Amino acid sequence: MAEIHPAQRVAVLADAQNLYHSSHSLYSQNVDYSGLLDAAVDGRELVRAIAYVIRADSPQEESFFEALRDIGFEAKIKEIKTFGDGSKKADWDVGISLDAVTLAEKVDAVALCTGDGDFSRLCHHLRHEGVRVEVFGFRSSTADELIDAADDFTDLADLSETVLL
Fold it and tell me: Over the stretch 106-138, which tens digit does the pLDDT of each residue have?
């Protein structure tokens, strides 16, 4: 496992939906994406920061998307799909995975900001390709298989002073 050093190139991929639900259910607070980005980059060269968001037709969401851009994130936006039975679905699992695999040849480390265990296979693949995988999530809502699959895990609860608003 490669250690962190200043010359590393890092990509930060933030699963905003997962982070939102975790921070709200655990702390009734929002994520401070500026603090999250600083923690994930950790003094290294940032190659790309992407926040994967869902458009839910909330009055504040456009200002949130703009704030993400101002912080340094590219906001990738997906519309919620409503099905005939009234159920709704929107997730970025495939998009995040494709971006991570595509960026793997351009970075030394991927900071995956999520607690979703569906990304454990992605972690194994990236590590096999020689990319350091760092997971940032709230421990009590992060899947054990995701933590086990990463090179490093950072519990955002330990950084609550800087990653929660």
Answer: 999 999 999 999 999 999 999 999 999 999 999
Bridge-based pairing of strands 74-79 and 152-155 is: unpaired
Tell me the C-alpha distance between 109 and 114, whole Å. 15
Is residue 7 packed enough to be buried (19+ CB in 10 Å), middle (13-18) or exposed (0-12)?
A: exposed
What angle (nearest 5°) sits at the alpha carbon of residue 43, between those of residues 40 and 49?
45
Instruction: State pTM to two decimals.
Output: 0.92
Which token pair is 57? 């037709």
User: Is domain 9-163 in CATH 3.40.50.1010, yes or no?
Assistant: yes
- How far does CA 53 lie from the centroid of its chain? 10
